[in-house]
Amino acid sequence: MTGIFRPGNTTPKGMRQPGYLSRPALAIAVSALAILGIALRLANLNNVIERTPDERVYAQQANAWRAQGHAGLLANVADYELNPATRQYPAPTRVGMIRLVAAAMQWTGEPGERAGAFISCAAAIASIFIFILLGIRFFPAMAFLIALLFYAVSPMQLMMARRTWTDALVEMFSLGMVYVVCEISRGSRGGAVWYTLFAAMAGAGITIKEYMILPSGLCALWILWVLLVNRRQWKEGIAMAGITLAGVGAALWWLAASVGGMRELLWVINSIPQANAQNSYALEYASGPGYLLLGGLYILTPVAALCALVGLYFAFRPPAGLSVNRVAIRWLGIFVSALVLFAMVVPHWLNLRYIAPVFGPFYLLAGFGFAWVFTVCLKGFGPTEGKVFAVLAVGLLIFDAGTDYARFRRIFVVDGTPDMSIRFLLNERAR
Questions:
Q1: Number of domain units in the chain
Q2: Has residue 3 been placed in a domain?
């Protein structure tokens, strides 16, 4: 297994390297874990017992578009503006999601919510490949493989991949932006290409869910900090800002044209926080002290949650000798911390799918944390004892992966828990 340190005979303070995987072995391990993740997402696509109100609303909005085109969308916008009860559900300004669900209905022949689940499943699978790119490029092999195992069996991702929600797409676009930003931080060639790709994903994400402005803004800030503060590349920074504003502006223009004008778009977006504050579902199931959101992560994936805390610590205080881009891992820590803290302080936002943009970075930090603990523990063993310890560590990881998947099956498939709001998770833990 590749250690978390740079190649060499010893690590800082005389710590020995754990050894290395060959390239073919690494490729086989990555392929096997990717296949596992894809297979689990496909295997659970058709076992939803009952669809949620949000899913039914997305299907209704998509069917209105299919039946009446632009007029059907405008009718939904008018109903949202006039009917307070309608504001308890997804806004009709998420035109990108509505159009995708309508297209899935057309392609698959499925008239209801199941068509949208195909989109979520495809987005979840695409996220696996983006996750692999991000891990291979910016994390040591051992940390990345552990993270990929965590991610393959992630209860949160498996839940989103079978539902007609925006969150799997939000995660996919957010993870893609994080990957692009890491490439820019690394100084990869083709700056204009990376800026354009980032702007395209930021703009597309905003058409899916208005919340995407937050992870997009954090990633844009990350890029500008690297270009303007770290490198003093003012022309590059201006070019990046201009391309990003053009991409986001084009997305907003398309949204406004789709829903009847900029006034309607801004009115709907501005009404969402007030509607959420009066939402009976949010008040009952997504409310409470902010720290409960962290408890929700621990309930669903306890080992990864604890390891992510270790990884988060070293993201801000990376020890000497790490074979990892320090700027990238520090900003990953900032990205995760900022979005989780935002969900913790916003009233009635204690739902794990609202922090979907952090799932990929969360598991990368968890893999990094586990690898660090493993390496530190290994230094106390001789060659024979070290091999035994390594076997036990691998066994623990496999056992944990099995329990995470079993936990997903028990909570979301067998018990039919409809969402990842904190009260549902607390009720499951109390059983």
A1: 1
A2: no
Residue 312 in any domain: the answer is: yes
Length of the chain: 431
CA dist 272 and 269 (Å) reads 5
**Which residue type does 426 have?**
L
Cβ contact 182:67 at 8 Å: no
> How far from chain centre, in Å, is Cα 100?
19
Q: State how far the Cα of 11 lies from the Cα of 246, in Å rounded to an integer.
A: 47
Cα 258 to Cα 251: distance, rounded to the nearest angstrom? 11
Of 245, 375, 391, the C-alpha closest to 323 is: 375
Q: What is the largest CA-CA distance in the chain?
A: 73
pLDDT tens profile 304-358: 999 999 999 988 887 665 566 677 888 899 999 999 999 999 999 999 999 999 9
Compute the distance between CA of residue 55 and CA of residue 60 in angstroms, rounded to an integer.
Answer: 9
Quick: pLDDT tens for 53-87: 999 999 999 999 999 999 999 999 999 999 999 99
Among the listed residues 203, 199, 195, the one whose alpha carbon sits nearest the alpha carbon of residue 236:
195
Answer yes or no: is 5 within a domain. Answer: no
Does the residue 393 lie in any domain? Answer: yes
**Cα torsion for 214, 217, 221, 227, to the nearest 10°?**
150
Expressed as residue numbers, the domain containing 324 is: 12-430
